[in-house]
Amino acid sequence: MFPKNKVIFSAAQPTGELHLGNYLGALKNWVHLQRDNQCFYAIVDYHAITIPYDPKDFPKKVMDLALDYLALGIDPEKSVVFIQSHVPEHTELAWILNTITPLGELERMTQFKDKAEQQRGSINAGLLNYPVLMAADILLYQPDLVPVGEDQTQHVELTRVIARKFNSAFGEYFKEPKVYEATIARVMSLLEPAKKMSKSLGPNHCLALNDPPEVIRKKIAKAVTDEGGLAENRVSGGKNLLELFKVLSDDKATKDAFEEQYKAGELKYAEFKPALAETIIKVLEPIQARRAELAAKPQEVTRILLGGRDKARLIAQKTLQDVKERMGLV
User: Fold this and answer.
1) pTM (global) more than 0.85
2) Domains of the chain and any CATH numbers
């Protein structure tokens, strides 16, 4: 059940091509949410530069993510789609919020500790302050709900803490946004089914939204299945592939048949895997076609992003002005 008449904010980083897990776990819900809510969907490029990156490739990654948003069904007539760095109020509010955010709250963030461990030679202040910028991203638009993955829920909770501290010090102003928890498909790695699908694991672990049919067929053919025993005791590879088929297929009779075969330990992967691959290809075909159309019209995509920037700034400027007035900065 999707909410209605709410303000929604969510965002993604331009760090590489999206995969099927990103779509089923997040963006598919974004498309549903825009039907009955006021939605803001950002491309958070400032967040992406807290880790090493190539500035020559970066503009393409930003535009690729914009193409993905639009191809997947984010409608600029219904949602505000924009690039974070086009709206300077994000970083200005982030600095202001830094002055009321306890250092201890930032140091205990799980994501900071994980990334600091991975980047021992290049830990920057941006990694530490990442959650404050995220809080600014969110609070600028006064959303009711923030759809995020479980790895980001701690950041939304910190956003609520920061909003509370601001309201306590300068008068009631910010809403305390809640995490929107939709029923989502948890898509796992094709080769390590105990792990979530992620491009960081390697290209054969995930199904990129832009993978051509022959690549999809090869990846599914190589996907791990099960290691003996009864269904409830098996390694989860086969079950994960079955769950993916159930999410993507509209053929109830075939889904039921495959599930019964799996439970009985009689699922023939030589038949099931090709059926799964063709189902994935069928789902991605219109998305890929729409993306190709948009890629051929870069000026139209730029127009959409600049229009989103202008809509976002109208609200962001008002929020920042209100904040400054309350803090005695005007």
Assistant:
1) yes
2) 7-185+298-327 (3.40.50.620), 199-292 (1.10.240.10)
